[in-house]
Design goal:
The strands form four sheets. A three-stranded antiparallel beta sheet has the order 1-2-3. β9 and β10 form a beta hairpin. The protein is mainly beta. Helices cover 4% and strands 29% of the residues. The radius of gyration is 16 Å and the shape is elongated.
Length: 112
């Protein structure tokens, strides 16, 4: 194959390989579509919807709050998110918890 494959958008590994219509990373296990590799600056939710500032999302998995015995329950609705750079790419206020950072892989966009 003469084409060079793009690095993994999750861990930046250069050892990516194609499987059917997807690209895979052997180091972190991330799978992605080559079409979305071009739009790496977009932040997507757990099902692939593009997120934007001000969106409303729901939590898809119980999340332990670091440094506390509290848990953000599945189905918690979070309004007015703000997208930021970094591993935890969503800043938001969660009802009952206050200001918090979330990973986009644990939320699903709510259709308005």
């Amino acid at each position: 194959m003469t084409d060079t494959l793009p690095p993994c958008p999750e861990c930046a590994s250069t050892y990516t390989y194609p499987v059917d219509a997807l690209l895979n990373c052997p180091e972190c296990g991330h799978e992605w579509s080559p079409e979305t590799a071009d739009s790496a600056d977009e932040i997507r939710d757990s099902v692939g919807n593009v997120l934007a500032d001000g969106d409303t999302v729901t939590v898809i998995k119980d999340l332990k709050v670091k440094g506390s015995s509290s848990v953000v329950k599945v189905g918690t609705k979070v309004r007015g998110i703000r997208l930021v750079d970094g591993d935890h790419d969503i800043d938001c206020k969660i009802p009952g918890f206050g200001q918090m950072s979330l990973k986009s892989q644990f939320v699903k966009k709510v259709s308005d």
